[in-house]
Specification:
197 residues, 5 helices, six-stranded antiparallel β-sheet, alpha+beta, four-stranded antiparallel β-sheet
């Protein structure tokens, strides 16, 4: 429970700092990100429990990565993230999950995600900001990637990439869980480096 409270305080600090850097009021950020002002006020007070969709909309609107909202300052030249030390940001009803492992630093950061999709469970994503590119590499099992209404079946050993500024869905298929690594390549943002803050 203490880890959750600490994580929420970090998110609260980072959202407020990014909002102020962007020169946005709570009302304007809420309007642009399609998040209620009340939810933003609670979030900046380290209250509530924002879901992955809310964090993605806020990050996209602020021009930063999701992990920039979640991570404190980095120490050292090498960062190592173990899967068992990273809490899932999304958990499906059938046991699917998505973990944001880390985000690279620099003007055009890359998020590295680890996903497990159970058969017939899906995660629909809203379009991201222009310039976002996603890459999906299936390491075990099968999935269906739906981009702009078109389905693409991916099996272990296959990788696909697409522009993330359109609707897209990840769906597990077959009889076994699908394991994949997803990277989200973010465009250079006006707010400076995406990590830390």
């Amino acid at each position: 429970m203490a880890e959750t409270a600490t994580a929420l305080r970090t998110v609260a600090h980072n959202v407020r700092a990014a909002r102020i850097r962007a020169g946005l009021s709570l009302e304007e950020l809420g309007r642009r990100a399609q998040v209620s002002k009340g939810a933003l006020v609670a979030l900046e007070k380290a209250q509530g429990n924002p879901n992955l969709a809310t964090l993605v909309r806020l990050a996209d609107t602020l021009g930063i990565s999701v992990s920039a909202l979640m991570q404190g300052p980095h120490e050292g030249r090498v960062r190592i993230a173990a899967a068992d030390a990273v809490a899932p940001l999304w958990t499906g009803e059938r046991g699917s999950e998505a973990q944001l492992m880390l985000t690279t630093s620099g003007p055009a950061p890359v998020e590295v995600w680890r996903w497990r999709l159970e058969p017939d469970e899906e995660y629909p994503s809203h379009p991201h900001q222009a310039g976002v590119v996603e890459t999906v590499s299936v390491t075990a099992g099968r999935m269906v990637l739906v981009v702009d209404g078109t389905e693409h079946t991916l099996e272990a050993g296959q990788t696909a990439t697409f522009d993330g500024d359109t609707t897209h869905t990840y769906r597990g298929t077959g009889t076994e869980p699908c394991h994949l690594i997803m990277t989200v390549h973010l465009p250079p943002g006006p707010a400076g480096p995406a990590t830390g803050a």
